[in-house]
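Fold this sequence, please.
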Amino acid sequence: MTEQFRYNAFSDYSSFNPAEELKKIHMIDDQFVKQSFSVNLKHFFDHLFPNCQSKQSLIEAQANILIVDTVPLDQLWQNTLTELPAEQFYAAICQILDFNAGLDFELTASRDFLTKSGQKILSDETVDTANLVQFMFNALNLRSANGLSLIDNLVNDGYLRKAWPQDLPLPLFFAGKTLAVVPKSDLISEAVYVDSQLDGDHDGKNDLIQLVLTRPKQSGPDLKVPIILTASPYYYGTNDMAEDVHNPDGDLAVKDNFDFADQPIADDQVLLPALTADQQSQSAAFQQTLKSGAASFPLNDFFLARGYAVAYYAGPGTRGSDGLRSSGGPDETIACCAAIEYLSGHRLAFTDKTASHSLHADWSNGSVAMTGRSYLGTLATACATRNPAGLKTIISESAISSWYDYYRENGLVVAPGGFQGEDADVLALDTFSRWFDAAEMAKSKQIFQDSLAEMKVEEDRTTGNYTAFWDKRNYLKDAGNIKIDCLYTHGLNDWNVKPINVFNILKSLKGTGDAAAKVILHQGRHISPHDIRSLDYLDICNLWLSHELYGQDNQVEKSLPDVMVEDNLDPEIWHSQQDWAKSERHQSTVLAALSSAKTAGYDDDLGQIYRENYHDYTSYEKDFYAGDARFAKSTAVFDLPSFGEATINGRVQVDLRIQTDRTVGLVTAALVELDAKEHASQTTKAILNRGFQLSLGDRQVPLRDFFKQSVKAHLIANGHLNLQNLKGPGKINQLKPDQYVQAVFYLQPTIYRLTDQTKLRLYIFGSDMQYTLHPRTVQHYQLDLEKSRVILPLNS
């Protein structure tokens, strides 16, 4: 027997009428109840083999399915049945779900296998006329070995094309979700140009932004469809910005007095009069010369076959569009909102950049969702804060909620994980694909270089303070304007877009009104969870968009828990909870209780150690947290007591009474688990022989999942603080040498389950090679341990 795995189904179908749902997909009709149990059972199982093109091939396929050790499925029909043991029913279903009898499960224990793997099955011992419809409905909603529900696999295999002799209805719903009814051959693509009403490149003209969309051919005035929009600045490819990445080597600056509260904030985005055109067109040809440089977003591919249009929007300064890049500035949000308003039917677009022929989206039902990961999901949050007409929901993965929290932290220049030396100006250069066309390069080169030079000054890598530049890129301050339902996903081990980004937006949305805000927290890094086996993510998203864009009353906004989190000890277990920010108790530990001394000192010579011994951050960090002797004098280390069976829920607080021998200083705190024998991996691996189709006719996508592993040291959370910013990132305090100050700061938020055996270690040190600057001057720090403590937010 292979090792038992576990599915976690947060999607709920209990509110649906099984008979009505089966009628929708032509699985049964009104004659069904008038026929015998045996005839109806055969009718059902015959429908589960849509690939069989003849009666003989169907017999052969069913002969390969055993219901007991010596009885294949095809022999059931040789006798008239009045009932069937539920064990035998589910034994057959398990095999149709592509689980292997004798390897994955035993024929005599099919129900136990499904239950232990997290599937929701019926408790009845026997299938008969009275409950057959319920068993059929239940079976179609079970998840196959490839992660999709049985009904989705049947549709991919051609079930609906057999069930409907005429054209399939669009959309077609089953159990509150859309089914795949549109093959790729029935899709059309077109490019339109949206008036942003901005002049970002200062040429005296309105910036027109290209929008590429794909929709069903039959969509139009008589068949209106909703739209899924992904704003991807990477859509047309990226520039090589390696030479423009900033060198992190260098000492911290002594800061002048500064208080952001005293700084004036000007709204410098001036909207120009909207362009108009006397002539109107019905369609716009897709310009094949403008090839995209990035792959489509997988979640969007899933929905293209399910009765949705999908639009990609790269934004100002990208290929085919006017304007410049600003790395999350207000202009990017304004322009994207203009695209949403076109897609929802609230403004015109144009067939080309002459703006001589206008277009109306008469095929749109007026409802738009935004999807995307990282920068893509970030723009979804940004647009949600402005409430453009037609935006009904967002599904945002690994997204930034404040660009300060991406490139800065508590008065420090802090890099996103994996991109040391990157900053807002570097990202703007990276995504300025407008340069890919020679004529556009000639027109825009100088003005873009001027804008980059200005951005380098305004982003202020010298002080790392919170300034007007970052305030314009802080969506949290406008989160109260969000009136739509939001579904977020994020990795608890994402050190690129760190968890503080999703934590803060959820906290800001809590209690703001009737809108639902849900989050899925996985154990991965900077990934999309669409292919994870242990979570029914595609089903959740399908229910979500069916409700938000098509108005299906499937109760998803009520049935989903507010927080869905993958367990850090067993990645096949997912928990639900109602809040991330609140904990039952705060466990305070004074650092003096963890040491034989009242003080502890360390030298920040870590930049020197790195330069002399390492060439990459991964091997450095591995040695650092494993306690390599080279770092003995560079850190203060404290082994925490056992907190028993508990869960860290939220942000760990660190209070330090600290002094240093200079007028500058930075402190890093990191909470680490040591010698974890069983721990969820941060990366996924493909499941052997398991793949699934995102949509009709697609190649198979490998099914993946996290796995258990033994780790010597796992970074749970960290935090960084400039000692000249004790009162916040926008306010300066002067630091005097050898004079104690009280520093209070918080680590990245997490949800982390502890056991009696968990060994926690707190590291206090200076520069953090992968994130902070690398000071060249060696600096000494001293801690007063009696007035220093760590506070863990714990739930039982």
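The chain is about 20% helix and 25% strand. The first strand starts at residue 66 and ends at 68.
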